[in-house]
Description:
Elements: E1 2-6, H1 12-17, E2 24-28, H2 33-42, H3 47-57, E3 62-69, E4 72-73, H4 75-82, E5 93-100, H5 108-119, E6 123-124, E7 129-132, H6 147-164, H7 178-185
Parallel strand pairs: 3-5, 5-6, 5-7
Antiparallel strand pairs: 1-2, 3-4
Amino acid sequence: MRSRPRQGGIGTLALVDQGHAVSIEVVELRALVGDVANQFVTGFAPPRLAAAIDAVTGSDGLIAVTPVFTASYSGLFKSFFDVIAPDALTGQPVLVAATGGTARHSLVLEHALRPLFAYLRAAVVPTAVYAASEDWGSGGDEYTDGLPARVRRAGGGLAALMAARPPRADPEDDVTALERQLADLRFD
Length: 188
């Protein structure tokens, strides 16, 4: 797994402005293709894949980006999310994004990515980002925002969902009363 922490990213500034500490980890699926296939065959995640799954499911927010192939997400992208437990992303803020050669593939965001994460019960950011070849280096025009503006808007939406989400419960904080522990020890 090629995973690298980052200091910046979309949504980071909005969260920092709100007083939140931010850490970004990138999971590159390309390095996990063999591990994902192995998971399908054996039913067990090799250590690198398990670490990637833990990074994704344990995060406070997720930015899921895929290249577009034949009007949909890549097979590796889908396979990775197939090996994650169906309820592992419940309520997790997710920003969906895709890249492709032309803008004609931009509907992949609405007909493939958004339904995938809705099925996984994630909280999908209303604004998604699609970047076609012509978007790189473009500032937009009088009718459309450029890629940087779209990224900032979507990142702000992700930051808002992350900030509004209640903190995850720590299982170590769940204290069982002594009376309950003693009652559980009784043998009848």
